[in-house]
């Protein structure tokens, strides 16, 4: 399985400088990135976060990436590598292999799971940074210690926590007068059934209890398809803006747009049966690379021969033609003879 995924990919290490959301402090992190081809497209995918303490010299990065690829693809290496590079390669390859097996079992859920875990960690760091700032203020001679004001600050922090605050038990200890806060402590206790405990899980709720899960999901996707229809009409097919002032011209504009949508949907429905789910904008870009050209030759008798034919399609376009059952030379080859016209200068 791993061999099939990484065959033809190219790995490299990317150095990225970013800032902590809580404090604004800049830091550098290192990521293992792969260029993965998906059909006619190539995209860069972060495979592994190497952390901010990755200290391998930059001149050895390419060697490490090559060794990781060789481990994942099962290729043998004739010459041994330094122990530190070999150990890193074996460890990172093991992490990638484990993660990729989970990815193969459920690709969409795994991507969402990683994304939501990263979001939750970012919100968690920001919320704890706010609590720490309030707690540190209690230790300052002129820091805010009023119980009412501390509670309002915590309330504002909970409002901005984006839901992460529900997982914290915040305890305030006051002095005997109950007016001054002495200490602030908190415990992190994830609430079951939330994004934090079940990342990557998408939930749908309805008041129609007669629907089973499959019917509910089809109904939901039908709504998203309808939204996609209007979005396609308004953007890709030029339903708006309408610059016509006469009613019959505006009706003609709308009719042609709806007719074009029917043609586009018929084409996309045919492609979807073969696993091609590109948008019309992407398909139109692929279709636009082929041109009809005319070559003109002059014969001995002075007449001109015009030969018109299509250029050779690129591999992505040739694949679309094959799925749709269309010839790869639309229009065929047309030959015509024309009398030459002399131009008097």
Provide the fold topology:
Layout (H helix, E strand, L loop, with lengths): L1 H5 L3 E10 L6 E13 L2 E11 L9 H13 L9 H23 L1 H32 L8 H13 L8 E7 L6 E8 L24 H22 L12 H26 L7 H8 L4 E7 L5 E7 L4 H10 L9 E5 L7
Antiparallel strand pairs: 1-2, 2-3, 4-5, 6-7, 7-8
Helix pairs in contact: 2-3, 3-4, 4-5
What labels would you give this structure?
345 residues, alpha+beta, 4 domains, three-stranded antiparallel β-sheet, 8 strands, disordered N terminus
| Average pLDDT over all residues | 80
Tell me, briefly, the overall form. extended
Numbering strands along the chain, what is their spatial order in the largest sheet? 1-2-3
Quote the distance from N terminus to C terminus: 71 Å
Q: Would you list the SSEs in sequence order as H and E?
A: HEEEHHHHEEHHHEEHE
The assembly state of the depicted protein chains is single chain
Quick structural overview:
The chain has 345 residues and is of the alpha+beta class.
